Fold:
Amino acid sequence: MEALDYAAAGETGFSFYTPRGDLSGTLTFGQLRERSLDLAQRLVGAGLKKGDRVAMIAESTPDFFVFFYGCQYAGLVPVPLPFPMHLGGKEAYIAQLSRMMQSARAAAAVSSAELVDYLRQASAGLQTPMVGTHADFYRLPESKTPLPRITEDDICYIQYSSGSTRFPHGIAASHKSVTANCSGILNHGVKARHGDRCVSWLPLYHDMGLVGCCLSPTYAQMSTDFIATPDFARRPLIWLKVLSENKGTISFSPTFGYDICLRRAARARSDEFDLSAWRVAGIGAEMVRADILARFAETFEPSGFNSKAFLASYGLAESTLAVTFSEIDTGIEVDAIVKRDYSLTGRARPGQPANDALEVRPFAFCGKILPNHELAIRDNEGNDLADRLIGRVYVRGPSVMNGYFGDPAATKRVLSKTGWLDTGDMGYTVNGNLVITGRGKDLIIYNGRNIWPQDIEWAVEGLEGLRRGDAAAFSVEDQDGAEEVIVVVQCRATDKDTREQLEREIAAQTRLIAGADCKVVLAQPRSLPMTSSGKLSRTAAKANYLAGHYSPQSTSVALRTASSATISAMARD
Amino acid sequence: MSEVDQKLISEISEMLSGLNKAGIEITADTDFNADLNVDSVAVMDFVLMVEDKYDISIPINLLSEVSTVGQFAQVVAKARVD
Structure:
């Protein structure tokens, strides 16, 4: 809020683009402040109380920003919600909205006129008295009610990118943590300078889109261009078009965004883009994949792209957004480590990529921890590990969230009394430079999006002929770090047609519920491994899958209870 | 179903031929997800192809309500009028 007051004094602001990448509108920080203050008065006048949650579909439009900042001035807590992305995904989408609004106990909900019917359906049966379009809220009567005072410990927003869609966990970010993280991003990360311009196609309900490309630029009076995420999904090259035309200097994306541009590059003319001003091409939200980035750099070098612009980072919404950044102007640096060593002993021993006899795997360095924050790598017993030993990654510092909204039990699972956050990721350090090797938690990251395997399993188990406990979803990585979603399903049917039909239905269901393409593997009944407490062990199921126990040719029987050796090997992998 | 719709459906079916790996007969009732089993990137390519051919923009919220070729044709027809 104070950041916007500051930004409003300058000439800069936000610009918006059409699906084909042409300018459709602008909102200077001054206009944003004025409209947000006006809205804040109306919201307070309508009876919304300090701390009340306001759910808002995070469309990349001026209205979203007016509502986000309007809530800040009014002492309300914005809850950005996703928009529908998938063909035929309407029902699943409305159910998802409904669960998030219920979890946040939203007092109001707002969207554009196009999406308000979804919001209305989602709020049916909930205690959300005010649901409407942006225009409906702008028409609320003016008021002179004084705006409440905000302290740095108050919640700034709640973000839903954690937890399954059935049991969403809202991350409550305080003003203090947002300020600390934005300062780290601008000063330690991108090293913001006068004249920088940010370009973003990232969704604003995700931390990299919201904190990285909306809140941080406000703190620096940095002009930012917004491309709507669904428009990027259809025409990814408009990202490069806007960067070219506006001489954009800073833009972030998961590896996936660079990859999709690469796949469309054949359709572009060689002189179509000028990427020479792009000095920070950030990568985050999923594993940094050096091979794809190298091809991107090679393909767009004739357009002026400099591979030294790549900036690897690591972060998670539970720590607002950013945790580590590599150095600017250095590009991607990789550590090639010996595969056999790290899977057997958990030691990241550097190998010689040139020597084929040693099987090495390259991992990208994600850089050093933000100032005033601490990083630790620990073993399963909680002991700190030395350099080059792989363990679980922990973070402490002012960016770490207060907790999951209204869910102390879930908070306790990841946040210690002494303030250490268990990221659930596995990695190691070399002189403080972090390398992420994988995840210690059952989470699938697909094109930069977090997907909870439970969501896929529940949806698949609802298909005719399947029961609770019949499905296991997980992802496997290839040599280069690309993730493939695997769904193993216990199948009782034996005839070919029924099995093929089931495979198609499982793939279709996975796409509807998670928007992800997957490989379906039909397994024998009772072949999915269980933990001692009778819960599905995805780690062991994955180990069985990788060992080939579920392949149709396999005559071996999948291990119902994976040996502890398999499990510990998997945990390190 | 009107004549215009039938023409549109056959045009759309033709554009879908690249995605129709199983070679099934495409009708208004063909379900993109369950029958054609097309992946998400291919769907986006297909939508893009249709948008470029008719010079239209299909709103995302409408796509989330589309399951079949017939429903898709209706969305396209509406976008062409708008």
Q: What stands out?
A: The first helix of chain A runs from residue 2 to 8. Chain A touches chain B at residues 19, 83-90, 93, 114-115, 118, 230, 233-235, 260, 263, 504-505, 507-508, 511-512, 515-517 (CB under 8 Å). Residues 554-573 of chain A have pLDDT under 50 and may be disordered.
